[in-house]
Structure formats: structure tokens, C-alpha cells
């Protein structure tokens, strides 16, 4: 599905708002995400760090887990934005673990990963492009 320019802008705006919610006392690197469901709902997420480091959660997974825990199972796109000290100077690529979580719930051929540097500087890739030959639920069926 081709996203409208307005929808892309809305997702980037919602993801950007989450930069202020990131709990980042250790890395000081804030990430915000906005996940668009097929039913039109948007779930946002921020990264949440932990003194023990490994329990930290990325913004993308926060958004996915919020959505799935509310009963959502069909997803269209996610916008991601991030930067040191909450200032965005570059694109923020989703980490490998978050790509794998996307693989669990999304069609890799159609799910769109929007990485944004600003409201009008963004790129869109499919999940298959950012996670080629991904291992997913289909491999176990
Ligand atoms: N982070 C995300 O939230 N998403 C990503 O895809 C990349 C990394 C977070 C994890 C950690 O809190 C901080 O950014 C630095 O790695």
C-alpha cells in the first residue's frame, strides 16, 4: 500500500514527539517510533534503558509490544527517528533485534520502514530490504 505524504508526515511527527519520552540516562541516545496498524491506529514508542543495560528496550519494540498487547496484529509501516541528546542529525536505522521483531508480525514484502532525519528528509524501505532472507513464523510452519 502506498502511504500518502500526509500519513508519512504524521508518523514522523508522532515518532519525533516520543524523543522527549525516551528514558536514556546511559546512552543519552533518544529514539522515537510510530507504528501504523492496518486499521489506521498509530502506536508510539520510545527507548527505555536500564541500569543493568540488557533489559533496555528499543523504541520500535516498545511500539510493537504496546500494539500487540492491545490486540493489534496487522501492521503497515513504522517511522523511526533518533539522535544523541534528543537532537536528530542523521538517520537512525532499526537495530537487528527490532528488525527480527518486525519479521514476526509483518509481511516483509509490504511492511514499510521509514527512517527520518527531519519532517521532509526520510527514506522508505520494505522490511525485506532491511532484513533480507529473514527467518520468520513461516519457517516453522
Ligand atoms: N535504540 C533504539 O531505540 N532503536 C534502535 O533501533 C537503535 C537503538 C536505542 C537503544 C539504546 O537505548 C540507544 O538507542 C543506544 O543504542
Descriptive notes:
The protein has 141 residues and is an alpha+beta fold. The chain has helices spanning 5-17, 59-69, 96-105, 127-130, and strands spanning 29-37, 42-46, 75-84, 112-116, 122-126. The protein has a 5-stranded mixed sheet with strand order 2-1-3-4-5, sandwiched between helices. The longest helix is centred in the first third of the chain and has 13 residues, at 5-17. The chain has 4 helices and 5 strands; from the N terminus they run αββαβαββα. Strand 4 (112-116) and strand 5 (122-126) form a beta hairpin. Helices cover 27% and strands 24% of the residues.
Structure described in brief:
This protein is α+β, with helices and mostly antiparallel strands. The chain has helices at residues 5-17, 59-69, 96-105, 127-130, and strands at 29-37, 42-46, 75-84, 112-116, 122-126.
Features:
141 residues, alpha+beta, 4 helices, 5 strands, globular, binds tetrahydrodeoxyuridine
* H/E topology pattern: HEEHEHEEH
Let me know the number of strands: 5
Mean pLDDT rating:
98
Helix residue percentage: 25-40%
What hetero molecules are in the model? tetrahydrodeoxyuridine
Number of helices: 4
| Cα Rg | 14 Å
